[in-house]
Amino acid sequence: MTRIAIVEGDGIGHEVIPVAEAVLELLHPEYEYFAIDVGFHRWEQTGCPCADRDIEALKMADAILFGAVTTPPMKDYQSVVLRIRKALDLYANLRPVKGNGFDIIIVRENTEGLYSGIEETGHDRATTLRLVTRSGTERIVRKAIGLASRKNGTLTIGHKANVIKSDVFFRDICIAEAKAAGIPFNDRYIDALSLDLLQHPDRYSVVVTTNMFGDILSDVASYLVGGLGLVPSANIGERYALFEPVHGSAPDIAGKNIANPVAALRSAAMLLDHLGDRDAAVCIEEEIQHVISAGIRTRDLGGTAGTREFGDAVLTGLRKH
User: Fold this and answer.
1) pLDDT number for residue 7
2) pLDDT per residue over 146-176, tens digit each?
3) Which domains, ranges and CATH numbers included, belong to the chain?
4) What is this structure's pTM?
């Protein structure tokens, strides 16, 4: 029995994830789906946003469909997303950005860097340690090399080695691994890369970079396809896998039925592809494109359709298939 954990989280996660879950249930009614409640709202109610038992429940799933969680800027609040990534060792964050004439996947190291959680806050200063290890760098670049090989593409290494010594370390390990694998590669300063990727997306295939740089770069790249509401992601480890839209919890539009569910639907497609059902993943993407082409669009795409209405249109199309 294939078990899928459903985590709506906070904000618009309560609206977009039910749309994606309905598609999964339509395509795979034989799967077992179970809900796990974590997030800021849980912290407000109980003082604990994610308990040990929630982590253990997530480990029982074959794959996780995750919505979005609010992480307030509070000293005593632990990020739910960071805790789950570390507990499940989801070291590779994969963010595909596809459009006319380009097919990019940004491979972001997911457990180290400035999001390592090693921090100190005092009266006169605060310190965040940027952790880059050899083992962490080797495994993320090897993941990126594997993707570049399958795509017959070039690996681009994004860094800031001209300023940050830990990026010299990261860059040199990535270059050594790329040379050993015999794949074409280049390296770019992350600021120049961000601009060039927007101006010339067709030049890029697979980009590997550190945690925070990858977070920023993938958000920037979403401009190429219409915004954050359209971009999915996968968090992959050796044993576990979690799929989530790149957008956040968006509390300003939560509960208004205006959030774009496409990123959540594409995350569900990535989940099915990971489980071996490539055909179903392709069907979801084709139906998304068909619905948009038919003029059914959410407000961020210039339309008037609500979250539920867009989801219903996708479900109707999939049922016809």
Assistant:
1) 98
2) 999 999 999 999 999 999 999 999 999 999 9
3) 1-90+237-321 (3.40.718.10), 109-228 (3.40.50)
4) 0.93
pLDDT of residue 182: 97
**Cβ distance 26 to 56 under 8 Å?**
no
Torsion sign (Cα): 129, 135, 140, 145? positive
Distance of alpha carbon 72 from alpha carbon 75, whole angstroms: 9
Torsion sign (Cα): 227, 232, 237, 242? positive
Question: 74 pLDDT exceeds 80?
Answer: no
What are φ and ψ of residue 7, in 5° steps? -120, 105
Contact (Cβ atoms closer than 8 angstroms) between residue 187 and residue 157 = yes
pLDDT in tens, 92-146: 999 999 999 999 999 999 999 998 888 888 889 999 999 999 999 999 999 999 9
What 3 state SS string does the chain have? Answer: CCEEEEEEECCCHHHHHHHHHHHHHHHCCCCEEEECCCCHHHHHHHCCCCCHHHHHHHCCCCEEEEEECCCCCCCCCCCHHHHHHHHCCCCEEEEEEEECCEEEEEEEECCCECCCCCEEECCCCEEECCECCHHHHHHHHHHHHHHHHHHCCCEEEEECCCCCHHHHHHHHHHHHHHHHHCCCEEEEEHHHHHHHHHHCHHHCCEEEECHHHHHHHHHHHHHHHCCHHHCEEEEECCCCEEEEECCCCCCCCCCCCCCCCHHHHHHHHHHHHHCCCHHHHHHHHHHHHHHHHCCCCCHHHCCCCCHHHHHHHHHHHHHHC
How many other C-beta atoms lie within 10 A of the C-beta of residue 58?
20
What pairing do the DSSP bridges indicate for beta strands 185-189 and 32-35? unpaired
